[in-house]
Amino acid sequence: MGSKSDRIAVTLVCSACGSRNYKTSRARRPDAKAVELKKFCKTCGAHTLHVETK
Ligand SMILES: [Zn+2]
């Protein structure tokens, strides 16, 4: 339980311009929703919604 293999790496992509700005990880759960976070995008020059991608 809680081993590192239970986490998967995801990339956070700006939903406004598509820049891949952040890497993170989250628990591997089949029922998990895609991560959505407000992050600063230097391409947009503003905080935008970032969503996970593989
Ligand atoms: Zn952006």
CATH superfamily: Ribosomal protein L33
Measured between the Cα atoms of the first and last residue, the distance is 24 Å
The succession of helices and strands, N to C, reads EEEE
Alpha-carbon Rg, integer: 12 Å
What is the beta-strand fraction? over 45%
Name of the CATH class: Mainly Beta
Q: How would the global form be characterised?
A: elongated
The number of domains is 1
CATH topology: Rubrerythrin, domain 2
Give a verbal description of the structure.
It is a single chain. By secondary structure, this protein is mostly beta strands. It has one domain: Rubrerythrin, domain 2. Helices cover 0% and strands 56% of the residues. It is built from no helices and four strands. The protein has strands at 7-14, 20-27, 36-41, 46-53. A four-stranded antiparallel β-sheet has the order 2-1-4-3, with no helix packed on it. Strand 3 (36-41) and strand 4 form a beta hairpin. The protein is elongated and about 35 Å long. It starts with 6 loop residues before the first strand and ends with a strand. The model has no long low-confidence stretch (mean pLDDT 89). Zinc ion binds at residues 14, 16-17, 19, 41, 43-44, 48.
